[in-house]
Specification:
Length: about 450
């Protein structure tokens, strides 16, 4: 068979493939494969279509020339349109939405610990009492306990901000810690005023005596005044730290009469009744996802599928990424199974229905497909492969495509990026085949 005859037959294949793709009768792959064999193969045709199973055993040699590659119809597959819903993969770890890490902002002495590990506390409940390790009187605004709230934790995942900030640099999260220093300060000032009034009244009633008696009385007054000032200063330095929300004492690092250095952790409080996970996506996905979208996810070691909802989107700068916070929908299924620290994998749909095509494994080149061979059989990140296609000018082109999904029943792969006016070459051709003419024999 001459090259001109094969070219005419290949043109006939294109025309027939396009007719079948657009026909309302939706001809099956059986008819298309039979047409290809009858058109180009002189030997008796086979009625078996190209599938993943039998395509792997096709070892028909190729005849590679300078400007052309001769192949059999077994190496050619037409584009079969398949509709699919675009989606994005999300992966993260379950954690409480409300959590706070209390850290010493300066040197402290723990006067008394009022809670135990794993204890549930209500909002406003006292957690512990500490005292500053300094004799210098400070202003009430100089809080000695810094907090790392859930908001700060999210920021730390997307920036270089240190989680242990002093209260002077973290006044916006100071409401996470309730402190009684204002009340204690007012009491201390009141005690000082009453002390001064008593001393003045006592001195005004005393008659003038000799120098020895006057000196002794003055010394006693100074001693009493010093003791009252010391007690006032000690009272002022006591700080009662209270829970900013209801939750469980997850970590407790301190005990009574313990000396605490700056930046040392004190306590971790979390509310495991409200959970979420945070996934990282390429910044390109920002236009494809929005707050309120539903996320279906699975948890490691569990069979059931759970539901979440996108609650927050945050863009980081270095590296430039998109952080997606997904709140776990509280229902009977999730309430009884989902726990903190679980690794989860989910997907969120976006956009309109798209059209792809299914191909066997040997059509895909330069890609590792093993990530698709387990549920949910979809990649978390875009998976790019190369496919050889034959355009209408009968020239071979190496086309990049996106692998969307794997079907474990048919062992076929759904890909996107190939138009209906092309044919797929199943042969694993060398890179130098780009631009050569495909000849069917």
């Amino acid at each position: 068979m001459t090259d001109s005859m094969c070219s005419r037959r290949l043109s006939t294949i294109f025309s027939s493939a396009l007719f079948l793709a657009s026909s309302p009768l939706k001809k099956s792959m059986y008819l298309l494969s039979a047409l290809l064999i009858i058109a180009c193969q002189p030997s008796p045709p086979t009625s078996e279509p190209v599938t993943a199973e039998n395509s792997e055993t096709v070892n028909t040699p190729l005849l590679i020339r300078t400007d052309s590659i001769t192949m059999t119809p077994d190496h050619i597959l037409s584009v079969k349109p398949t509709r699919y819903q675009p989606s994005l993969g999300l992966e993260g770890e379950i954690e409480p939405i409300k959590k706070v890490n209390l850290t010493a902002g300066q040197a402290l002495i723990v006067e008394k610990v009022l809670v135990k590990k794993n204890q549930w506390v209500e909002k406003g409940a006292p957690l512990f009492i500490v005292r500053r390790q300094t004799s210098q009187i400070q202003q009430p605004a100089d809080v000695a306990v810094s907090t790392t709230s859930v908001e700060t934790v999210e920021i730390n995942k997307k920036s270089d901000i240190k989680p242990e900030q002093s209260a002077a640099n973290n006044q916006n999260s100071a409401n996470d810690t309730v402190i009684n220093s204002d009340k204690q300060t007012k009491q201390a000032v009141k005690n000082d005023a009453e002390s001064d009034a008593k001393i003045t009244a006592a001195n005004s009633k005393k008659p003038t005596t000799d120098n020895a008696t006057s000196s002794s009385s003055s010394s006693n007054d100074d001693l009493n005044n010093t003791q009252e000032n010391t007690q006032s200063e000690k009272s002022y330095n006591l700080i009662t730290v209270r829970a900013s929300f209801s939750g469980r004492i997850e970590k407790l690092y301190i005990k009574n009469e313990q000396k605490v250095e700056p930046h040392q952790p004190l306590l971790k409080l979390s509310d495991e009744t409200e959970l979420h996970f945070i996934a990282t996506l390429p910044i390109d996905a920002e236009s494809q996802i929005s707050v309120g979208q539903t996320v279906n996810f699975t948890a490691e070691g569990l069979i059931d599928e759970f539901t979440g909802q996108v609650s927050k989107l945050t863009t980081t700068q270095q590296p430039k990424q998109l952080l997606v916070a997904v709140n776990v929908v509280d229902n009977e299924v999730s309430r009884n199974q989902i726990r903190a620290d679980m690794k989860v994998t989910g997907r969120v749909d976006y956009g309109q229905i798209q059209v792809g095509t299914t191909v066997p494994k040997r059509a895909l080149h330069n890609v590792d497909l093993t990530v698709l061979h387990k549920p949910p059989y979809k990649p978390l990140r875009p998976l790019i492969a190369n496919v050889w296609i034959i355009k209408q000018d009968q020239r071979l082109t190496r086309q990049p495509v996106e692998v969307i999904e794997y079907d474990p029943l048919t062992k076929q792969y759904l890909i996107a990026g190939i138009t209906n006016d092309s044919l797929i070459c199943l042969a694993n051709l060398p890179v130098e085949s780009e631009g050569k003419k495909a000849v069917v024999s």
